[in-house]
């Protein structure tokens, strides 16, 4: 049974009512009425390409997540072996190769600063003719989002040669949001008058004023526009990068803000039709 306390423009939801296991999918199940939002799974630093592919295939529906095995990256050494997770040195090297000076000068991140928004760096799958090769080169896929032109870019870097082998770019493909994007979405929201309900509910729950994103735990879902299902201000969501937030006071309750959407590309907040 869910206990919900209605207050102001938002709703404070008792902590026991929503048990999150690090995924917004569970929020979507516990908090109904998320039509128009794409599922966002946990693990924001890995698997952005898979998330992008699911979104491109219309993955706005809740989907079962197969159990996985977490493999720890090698503790020492600058280079991993075989299918070992990328080492810290490989992660840094892949990003430096992919995000060269030209890319950094021309791109724009979620805060509007120079350089595209980094989403993930993942170990790339080997080529078909390398599956049985013990000496197959290690490659990394560097995924980033350029807010200057709302483009998702994936670069495949050969870590042995230090070269970019492939580059793919798409518009209208929206992988799960990164932690930095979640944080910026909260900043944009807190600066907008529509955050009044969130601030009031936070004060009711904690006795303190809400002034900073670090006072909240945030999960989120990418929001896509559906014809007639939202105000005109959100019609570009999907082309733009838009977020629906599920905030939780640190050591406190969840606050239901499903009625608000933050357009990170336009840096605006709008309220969904009810």
From TrEMBL:
Stretches of Low complexity bias are at 47-70
Which residue intervals make up region (Disordered)?
38-88
Listed transmembrane segments:
12-31
- Give the highest taxon in the source lineage: Bacteria
Q: Among its keywords, does the record have Electron transport?
A: no
- What spans are recorded as compositionally biased (Basic and acidic residues)? 73-88
**Which keywords does the record carry?**
Membrane, Transmembrane, Transmembrane helix
| Descriptive protein name | Tat pathway signal sequence domain protein
Please tell me the species this chain comes from. Streptomyces fuscus
């Amino acid at each position: 049974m869910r206990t919900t306390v209605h207050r102001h423009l938002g709703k404070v939801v008792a902590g026991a009512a929503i048990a999150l296991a690090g995924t917004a999918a569970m929020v979507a199940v516990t908090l109904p009425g998320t039509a128009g939002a794409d599922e966002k799974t946990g693990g924001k630093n890995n698997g952005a390409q898979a998330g992008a592919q699911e979104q491109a295939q219309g993955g706005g529906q809740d989907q079962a997540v197969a159990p996985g095995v977490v493999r720890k990256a090698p503790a020492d050494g600058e280079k991993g072996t075989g299918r070992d997770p990328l080492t810290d040195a490989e992660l840094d090297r892949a990003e430096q190769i992919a995000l060269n000076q030209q890319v950094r000068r021309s791109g724009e991140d979620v805060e509007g600063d120079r350089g595209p928004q980094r989403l993930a760096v993942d170990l790339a799958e080997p080529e078909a003719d390398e599956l049985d090769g013990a000496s197959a080169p290690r490659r990394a896929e560097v995924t980033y989002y350029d807010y200057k032109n709302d483009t998702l870019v994936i670069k495949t870097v050969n870590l042995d040669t230090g070269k970019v082998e492939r580059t793919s770019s798409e518009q209208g493909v929206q992988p799960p949001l990164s932690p930095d994007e979640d944080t910026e979405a909260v900043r944009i929201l807190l600066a907008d008058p529509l955050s009044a309900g969130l601030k009031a509910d936070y004060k009711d729950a904690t006795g303190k004023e809400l002034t900073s994103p670090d006072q909240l735990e945030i999960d989120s879902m990418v929001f896509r526009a559906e014809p007639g299902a939202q105000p005109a201000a959100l019609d570009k969501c999907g082309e733009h990068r838009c977020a629906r937030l599920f905030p939780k006071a640190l050591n406190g309750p969840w606050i239901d803000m499903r009625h608000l959407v933050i357009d990170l590309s336009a840096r605006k907040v709008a309220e969904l039709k009810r």
